[in-house]
Specification:
This is PACRL protein. By secondary structure, the chain is mainly alpha-helical. The protein contains eleven helices and two strands. The protein has two domains: 35 residues; 173 residues, Serine Threonine Protein Phosphatase 5, Tetratricopeptide repeat (Alpha Horseshoe), CATH 1.25.40. Helix 9 runs antiparallel to helix 10 and helix 9 packs across helix 11.
């Protein structure tokens, strides 16, 4: 009888031990998820850390790197009233290729002093004697860079791109007409924004002034509402 009891108790104990195992195994499994969520926040933080850099460098600009290495032959001089550029040598003696394109790439920068150096440098380089002959051969490479600035989500970058386009048009004249259609789509998108409507209209009128009658047809092909 005691053997039966032992056996029965044994049979009873076995289920208990099985139940205990079942009870303990969920504890282990429930403990595992408690540990697993810990790395998840860091996993989520990693892309967040990268994202701001990705947005700032979209589209990517090599200007900051070139500037840091001394590849831009001018520096910002802080003034009491306004800033100015100091050129390391006369701008007239500096080849436009690749400097003018590099400065145009810098228009997409959003941080000081890159914003000022690129904008002012682009303008001043186009003011040198013989700028027309130097700039025209660069148009196929220069216009896509300006297009990227005009497509930028940052409003100030767009404005710098628009100003640079007008400055370029003043120098190269009708030579810009063949390339103008590539940038007009990005300009027309900003027309829906009341903030830019007047500025864009003035810019288009300047492009027409510098580019001649042929410019009107080019503008109207992308912006039908334009009136000269």
């Amino acid at each position: 009888g005691s053997n039966i009891l032992r056996m029965s108790s044994g049979t009873l104990r076995k289920p208990k031990s099985a139940i205990q195992r079942n009870k303990t195994s969920p504890l282990h499994s429930s403990a595992e998820p408690a540990v697993k969520p810990r790395p998840r926040p860091s996993d989520k933080l990693n892309p967040k850390t990268i994202d701001p850099f990705a947005t700032n460098s979209r589209p990517p600009s090599a200007f900051a790197a070139v500037y840091a290495k001394g590849g831009i032959p001018c520096r910002l001089v802080h003034g009491t009233v306004k800033h100015r550029l100091r050129w390391e040598r006369l701008p007239e003696t500096i080849p436009f290729d690749p400097l003018l394109i590099t400065l145009a790439e810098g228009l997409r920068e959003t941080k000081h002093p890159y914003t000022f150096v690129s904008k002012e440098g682009f303008k001043e380089l186009l003011m040198v004697e013989g700028a027309t002959e130097k700039a025209i051969p660069l148009l196929p490479r220069l216009v896509p860079v300006l297009k990227a600035a005009l497509a930028h989500s940052d409003n100030e970058v767009f404005e710098r791109g628009l100003d640079a386009l007008v400055q370029l048009s003043a120098v190269v004249g009708p030579a810009l007409n063949d390339h103008l259609k590539h940038v007009l789509t990005n300009i027309s998108r900003r027309l829906t924004n009341k903030t830019f409507r007047e500025k864009i209209t003035v810019a288009l009128q300047k492009l027409e002034e510098y580019g001649g009658k042929a410019t009107v047809a080019v503008i109207k092909s992308k912006i039908p509402t334009y009136c000269s």
